[in-house]
Amino acid sequence: xxxxxxSDRQLxxxxxxxxxxxxxxxRLPKILQTIKxxxxxxxxxxxxxxxxxxxxxxxxxxxxxxxxDEAVLTYRxxxxxVNRCANYLLSQGLRxxxxxxxxxxxxxALVIVYSAIAKIGAINCMIxxxxxxxxxxxCLTVNPAKAFMVGEEVIGAFLEIKSSLKLDxxxxxxxxxxxRTKPLHTALSTxxxx
Length: 194
What we know:
Helix content: 40-55%
Largest sheet: 4 strands, parallel
Oligomer: single chain
Order of helices and strands: HHHHEEHEHEHEHEH
Radius of gyration: 23 Å
Number of helices: 9
Number of strands: 6
């Protein structure tokens, strides 16, 4: 066996395979039950982030939903901010299934933008704000986004690699102002392209 190649040592025998399959048999009823449950889920029974937010805003309008050093938002305020952002994004042509890269630090604006994107059915692609240069470029190109939401606090890192992204006219850039320079509602209502 010492002279066996790497691939020979990785091969399993038929008896090893059969034993592994036999160990799965006790889990088979639960697996089949889960498959049956998934097949019963229809479009009318699906929950979404947006639907849950709407329900919570109706049930608990005055309860705190978002709390940070810069803002405290009730479920009503949070849902209203999300709806404003979602309507703006829809007016800009963003649609269900579109990929949106979010490059913002952790702050209420991130939660609002994330929720707005989810509410319209677009796909959030959150980018680690500690990334720079090649790592950042890779993350922004691995799944080509239709839109990029870039926070003021990380705009320098984005601008360093922007030209190498080879963006086309269909890809939009949005600048989200920093929480320290504008109140939250103003920062969200003044979207602009950097």
